[in-house]
Design a protein that fits this description.
single chain, about 850 residues, alpha+beta, 18 helices
Length: about 850
Amino acid sequence: MGAVQSCRVSIICVVQTLLVVGLLYSIPVRAQQVIGARSGAVAEPRLHGEPGSPDATKTIDGRYLPPPPQKFGGEINPNAEQSKPFWPARVVPPKGAPNVLLIMTDDVGFAAPSTFGGVIPTPTLDRIAKMGLRYTRFHTTALCSPTRAALLTGHNHHSVDTGVVVDQATGYPGYNSVIPRDAVAIGEILRQNGYETSWYGKDHNVPIWEASQAGPFEEWPTGPIKGFDYYFGFIGDDTTQWTPNNLFRNTTPIEPYLGHPGWNLTTAMADEAIAHIRMLNAVQPDRPFMIYYAPGGTHAPHHPTPEWVKKISAKHLFDKGWNALRDEIFANQKRLGVIPKDAQLTAWPDSLPKWDSLDVEAKKLYIRQADVYAAYLAYTDYEIGRVVQAIDDTGKLDNTLIIYISGDNGASPEGTLNGLYSEYAILNGIHPTVAENMKFYDVWGTNETYPHYAVPWAWAFDTPYQWTKEVASHFGGTRNGMAMAWPARIKDAGGIRTQFHHVIDIVPTILEAAGLPQPVSVNGITQKPIEGVSMVYTWDHADAPGRRRTQYFEMFGSRGIYQDDWMASAPPVVDPWALSLKPPPTDVMNGFPWQLYDLHKDWTQANDLAARMPDKLRDLKQVFTMEAQKYQVFPLDDRTLPRFVGEKPSYSFGRTLFTYSSEVTNVPFPGVAGAPKLMNRSYTITADVQIPQSGAEGMLVTDGGRFGGYGFYLLKGVPVFTWNLLQLARVKWKGKEALTPGQHTLEFDWKYDGPGLGKGGTGTLKLDGQVLDRHPMPKSVPVGIGWCETFDVGIDTGTAVDDADYQVPFRFTGTINKLTVKLGPEELTPEERKLLGLTAKNFD
């Protein structure tokens, strides 16, 4: 009996110990079993060097991050002479773990780069493909933020609450744009396993209400979720490459006007990465690194340097137009073997004009658009090549895993049918005509424009597939070229791989290559099992059966389900370039007609079998519903602009009075991140200023710049208030004389003619209570004035709202004692409020 009791006590003690260990790592025992089964073999933790010596290193059990503190193994006595020191071992990755260079370009269609049959030269992507593998059935989510979240976490985009871009976030699981702490990114995983991690370029996964220099910074690149040691880049959708005003080093804004003529972010970013590579090689040459390189190219604005435009224009790549280009690319793709010989070219849609139907002026404009875009892609690829060469110059290219993903979605249709001289035009519901765009022909691609090409070019750059970016149902929106190389390990140089894969498969690929397990717990938080599958199995076996058997797709209600080389697809009812605040015309759940494709025989989704095989379609639709429930895809929502304008968490919410007494710079996203939003309401701006004996000029307050926005300033001492209406007009209220020395009160009062979006009103400029100027403005900016410009007080850190009046930084040379912005209620119609999901209580 005593022996039995003793045994029971021992078992209880063992169980209690196991439970304590489980609690210590913040993970239930069952979850450990499940995740352990998914993670595969785990490398045995091992110590390198003499224990306790300054040069000792340690490979850890990477399932639990960070590992428990290392025990002191020395000896402590009252006197140091009789004691023995002991240094904790530095954490290092497993022996032979590669460096990692992860590259993702932006808005590049499958058929744009030369590597996948396009006519635009991309020698760096060609180089990676020739020294490694070209993947021809690699997929993204059809949109920017969702793809990038999936890329960095290894989770489906809805699974990490990024089912749509952060600007269009809604208050549902799957759509709130906040990546959860139970799905940390590859940067944090590698960093805690001893890698040095750095990120260059775009981060479009910071919730917009946290996107200012005030933070909070948990969701930023250097925060605990993404985990990169160093960041240099821009926060948001995109930025001007000439004078970016949303550019940060870690979490500190970089003032763009400190640059020099000809400065371009595409080159500056490569310079920054190259300097970092050289620094690390000099200071810590044996430390493995991960670089995530995500340039702005080729998202609008298309901003290459003039040299690249001249070089590409001389090739006359696009003179025959988009239909002939499509035929040329299709032939190239078959020659390269990136599509099968029996693949079909999908039909040209009736909704897009054919090239031969256009007049001479339209053709001239569209060729210019394509030349500038192609120059931007070639320029971006060239600068990426400089980064690759910098690694080669250190002698580390052989042991570097390079993953070059050509685009985060299909080619972009957001340029509308005629293209855009400014992307901000379409944001505000303006569809420029050919004639309106031609006014900017000579400066297309310079800092005078924020340009985008016409939709038919996007369709051509997605050859041979249907549709474009924003459409998740068809490969034109989701299939992107990808090349992967690791010279020390991947030996089938120049090989082609056709297994069906998705962007969530990149994280497990990197982990397997590095010999690291998928983490069970990170920073005390139990991690969700990674949803991707490693692609390493494809490296040595070109014909290996694909391991991704099922994958769902969804974006703005368009959706698809892939399973075992069958695809069911529900394309959008409204073309994605037909941006509008009108309510969607159909029930998103039941109104999208489904199509069916047998990918065994139909590589390009050219032949719809839905009518012939209704039972197969029904089965796949059921699979989609199960996957959608599993990964937080519901509720479906096909709105675009309404979600952009709709309610989000806000550091400005409910504020009607903003007060400033000192210089303020770089506050983005008015109405959300902390700056006042002036659209669709009455407002009053009052500035109490002190003018010195020598007089004063400069900016009092501004938001926006060359592409749209307002500024209140003194021009040679004369008060001026300017509204830049998206470069289509500039409306001014001006005084007649310079302010005299002493104290003055300046006021601009705007009475809005609402309710309704973008209505006009009457502005009144006053000095010390006396009216200086009063007149109406027939229309106003209805939606937004640009994410690459910011709100400033006492200075202008971006571009000028009117270059003819002043040049940045235009710092105010007097003293601002107090500046206030007082807002009236936002004046929308009941129909607009309902469409945007707003309540009267919020805006009255």
